[in-house]
Amino acid sequence: MRRFVCLRVVALFAMSLAIVTAGCSGSSSSNPSANPAAGVANVAITDAASLDYAHVYVTVTGVAFHTLADSGFSDYSSAKQSQWQITRLADPVTVDLAQLVNGKTNSLFNGITLPNGQYRQIRIFLASTEDALAPSAAALGLTYNNEVQLNGDTSHYPLRIPTAKEGISLIPEAPVTVSDGTTANLVLDFNLNNDVVEVSPNGSTEFILKPRLGYFDMSSVGAVTGTVSFGNLSTSRIVVKAEQVKSGASYRITRRLGVPDKSTGAFALNPLPIFGSATTASYDILIRGRHLDTAVIKGVKVHKGGSTDLGAITLQPDQEFTAQVGQVIRPTGSWVNFYQTLGSDPIPYEVRYRHLNPYTGKFFTPEPLSAGPVQVATYTGTGALAFVPDASCQGIFTAVAEAAGRYSRGAVANVTGTPNAALLIDFTNKLPVPTDPQQISATFDMEFFGTGMGHGMGGGRPGAQLPTKGEVFVTQGGMIIDAQGTLTLDTSVQNAMHAGGGVNNPAIISSSMPGGVTYGLYALGWGNNVLAAGSVQGIDLPSGGARVNIKMR
Fold first, then answer.
1. The whole model's pTM is what?
2. Closest of 402, 475, 474, 405 to residue 432, by C-alpha
């Protein structure tokens, strides 16, 4: 079925929003349901403000909805596309996520018709970084379809999107309800500060996306604003977070984070969700940074459609220490949450959240943590905030490793530091545990190696020297779960690629992936001045495991 939607391409610069193109652009829709009762969805994307990135470009190709949270997807399997409501852009659109901050959005999909129902999974599709440059990326002068540009640096760094055609999955906390005559206005939220991970697989800088998407129903949101004051705003890496207690759990989670303006200290946490039929929500605001005391403002009321201003907040300088994981963490796609617990409140606050480098299973650099007390204030709605230091948690953290998919949450590891200490966290017997672990192995089809058209690929010239190093990532819904290869100190992947692949050169990718889940594999090979890439989707992992053939370009 073919239809047209109104597509607005929006360019955002610094603190202003300007519509540069508005018109009707063709898109194709695959809606297999015969149910004529339908509603409408509009989908935009946004991002939290970032500390390091001048630009983070992604090239969007489509979006899809499903009523089941655990349904897998494959771009080349009709069975794996069944019951997905898929809308493809006629032409990919390249978006700078780093400009979509403080409530700014880019409306990519308007007027999507969806059959009535409750949708428990959304996927957004990006072009592959290793593919030929899309016209929208070329028009911006980019080198890759997805790339990072750092502040004060003119280089173009690739942003790898593992198993791009699998799509990036979002599981809403509450289903998105579509019914006759209604319009759902949805905003999908990226998080550059946490989910763009710096790596260096071949000695040069690049980045890889480990997305934990959020979403907002724009009919039920509010905002919090304020201004922080500190001696050096430009280098203190201050982050402001809105937190709530996770439903059914005994810890807090971050709903939204922001970064103060480096000149004025002004910040905006927008949008902040207000769930259900409520018109007001309560948030705790946490502020942390380098060489300063963490601050917590408790009980901030956020009103639907409104904005709560916290006024001026003066932060206190202090010392810090660093923490690195003491051993390779499996699965390597894990992340670590750092918490602190106040003397007056038994439910810990999430102070920092950090992805592991998925190539190595460790942090790319050690994580800084405050060695000072936590400054605590209670919001009253009148007068200036009055902070009181809580020394009961000074330099005392807990760390918990988590992984996407069917893994248990890791056990608590205690982290206690003094000024300028460099700690190694012991996660022995505290890592996420897979349910029903099974083995995935792979072979590599090198027949088409050299035919890739993306930057650094073979350019359509097969017969290049074979890679000497390699890594394979296991993905689920676009999120890296685990990896095996050169940088995890396993030689089977690089040996198999360099030997020319084939069934006689298999490589075990993981021996402990949770069974009963649909996975993808994303392979990269390098060395000998070549780059090889390949992926496969829709891998159902049964009891007894699976072996998959990856065609390398």
1. 0.90
2. 402
